[in-house]
């Protein structure tokens, strides 16, 4: 796989992640009290909001890491684990282009 293909992969992931972030932001907006029919549905709405808030945080972290990967693309640091300084297997980069660490150092 060449740098152009990896760049396209990362750009596509960045775009999808940005879309997810926007969706999560919409879903974490305050729920008007009059939307709930009863206390159970209100609690259900709050639980969903908390799940979306956690997803939003994870998506923002992913976007940050994708941008770091994009910035290092084409440099000697791209594909190198930030902890052990060993190459990250290309299969991991293809599955998780935002990976800054090898599998061993992630654990």
Largest sheet: none
Counting helices, strands and paired strands, the structural category is: mainly alpha
Overall shape: elongated
Strand content: under 5%
Distance between the termini: 26 Å
Number of helices in the DSSP assignment: 4
H/E element sequence: HHHH
- Mean of residue pLDDT? 90
Q: Catalogue the unreliable spans.
A: none
Folded structure, characterized:
This protein is mainly alpha-helical. It has one domain. Helix content is 64%, strand content 0%. It has 4 helices and no strands. It has helices at 3-27, 39-72, 90-95, 103-106. Helix 1 (3-27) runs antiparallel to helix 2 (39-72). The longest helix has 34 residues, at 39-72. The radius of gyration is 18 Å and the shape is elongated. The chain starts with a helix and ends with a helix. The relative contact order is 0.15. The model has no long low-confidence stretch (mean pLDDT 90).
């Amino acid at each position: 796989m060449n740098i152009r293909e990896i760049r396209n992969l990362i750009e596509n992931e960045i775009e999808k992640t940005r879309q997810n972030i926007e969706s999560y932001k919409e879903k974490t907006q305050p729920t008007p009290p009059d939307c709930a029919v009863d206390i159970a549905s209100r609690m259900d709405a709050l639980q969903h909001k908390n799940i979306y808030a956690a997803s939003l945080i994870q998506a923002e972290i992913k976007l940050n890491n994708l941008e770091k990967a994009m910035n290092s693309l084409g440099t000697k640091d791209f594909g190198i684990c930030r902890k052990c300084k060993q190459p990250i297997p290309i299969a991991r980069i293809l599955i998780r282009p935002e990976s800054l660490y090898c599998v061993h150092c992630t654990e």
